[in-house]
Amino acid sequence: MLVIEAKLYADQPQYQKLDQMIRTASFVRNSCLRYWMDNEKVGQYDLSRLCKELAGEFEWAKKLNSMARQASAERAWASIKRFYDNCKNPSLKKKGFPKFKKGRSVEYKTSGWQLSKDMTAINFRDGFKAGWFKMRGGFDLNFYQLNQIKRVRVIRRADGYYCQFCIDQERQENIKPSGNAIGLDVGLSHFYTDSNGQKIDNPRHLRRSEKQLKRLQRQVSKKKKGSNSRKKAINKLGRKHLKVSRQRKDWLVKLARCVVSSNDVVAYEKLTVKNMVKNHCLAKSINSASWRTFFDWLEYYGKVMGKIVYGVNPQYTSQECPNCKAIVKKTLSQRTHICKCGCVMDRDEAGAINILAKALRELSRGGHSQTSSLELVNANGHINLCQKERKFS
């Protein structure tokens, strides 16, 4: 599944109708959750039947396309099913009970929308009659057939409204084998150190923007609640947060693509980030580094390019000597590996070498070859990993 995103341009009354569509979709989702909470043995088909009942009871809910109402019910059921699955897992302390949400998007399936002949404008044809919206971006929908578009999602962000097209298209890229294998050891002082000794600096986008974020947050707190000036201040704060998130994602995506395209085997640590952030002294820096997102993109590009991306258990990777395999205990502040065998090197470089060696041993034991790299990749399959960001003009 491929996701292409474009920004929507129209008049202010049309934007208000988009808000009505989003609020209606949120109402349907929250109503499904309430129905599940108040009744026993509620299944997915019961929630689908509830959508029809809501359309008959509320005239404004009937304006929303029937498939859009069904998509909202599917979102509610997805959160319920995730809660059921978490309850079956005894290792999870927080089960993630479904919550009511103030929605920011509405999703259509194969009806309720219409594209122009040149694929540069979209019309929403349900009862809200939002009209035609111009789309601007750097990718052309004419490369795909109309029947390949399975979902159309409208999202409200701080800087405007966006339309996402979920396209049924497999993404494959033919990259010539490089014959290289690399191990990655992520950290905070440097984003990662590879087994060749190369270090990539951490850009620290959030840290660099903290002063501006704090100033904008103070401006919001000084405004009177409910006033237009407070709404404007909130919008400025949201735009800044959106810019930081885009900077982080753009940097991670480009770095992951570069790593996978230049190596045939990429090994990394399977870190449990949610346990690491329990240390309140390092939680902010760890979350800002976004290691888990980086690993997800590595796995995604490994699948796209046919490369081997393999995660290993992080146990003893930073304590083991890459030369004699002896265990050398080190605290977090000790950044140099010094062993009795005479091996002296950077701690992170030693860890990266151990990660690569451990991955190659496990791969050789399993009898895997480079030709079966697609089977080794554990890509999580989320739609947002396939998203192509457009350049907005």
Notes on the protein architecture:
- The chain is α+β, with helices and mostly antiparallel strands and 393 residues long.
- Helices cover 42% and strands 19% of the residues.
- The chain has helices at 12-38, 44-57, 59-62, 66-87, 205-208, 210-222, 228-261, 273-276, 283-289, 291-305, 347-365, 373-376; strands at residues 2-9, 105-108, 113-115, 121-124, 131-136, 149-157, 160-167, 181-186, 190-194, 199-201, 265-269, 308-312, 336-338, 344-346, 387-388.
- β9 (190-194) and β10 (199-201) form a beta hairpin.
- α7 crosses α10.
Topology, element by element:
Blueprint: E1 2-9, H1 12-38, H2 44-57, H3 59-62, H4 66-87, E2 105-108, E3 113-115, E4 121-124, E5 131-136, E6 149-157, E7 160-167, E8 181-186, E9 190-194, E10 199-201, H5 205-208, H6 210-222, H7 228-261, E11 265-269, H8 273-276, H9 283-289, H10 291-305, E12 308-312, E13 336-338, E14 344-346, H11 347-365, H12 373-376, E15 387-388
Helix pairs in contact: 1-2, 1-4, 2-4, 6-7, 7-10
Provide mean pLDDT, rounded: 86
Apparent shape: elongated
Number of helices: 12
Taking pLDDT < 50 over at least 5 consecutive residues as the criterion, the unreliable ranges are: 367-393
> In total, how many beta strands?
15
Oligomeric grouping of the chains:
single chain
Structural class: alpha+beta
Distance, first to last CA: 26 Å
> What does the largest sheet look like?
8 strands, mixed
Question: Helix content range of the residues, please?
Answer: 40-55%
Rg computed from alpha carbons, rounded to a whole number of angstroms:
25 Å
> Could you state the order of secondary-structure elements as H and E?
EHHHHEEEEEEEEEHHHEHHHEEEHHE
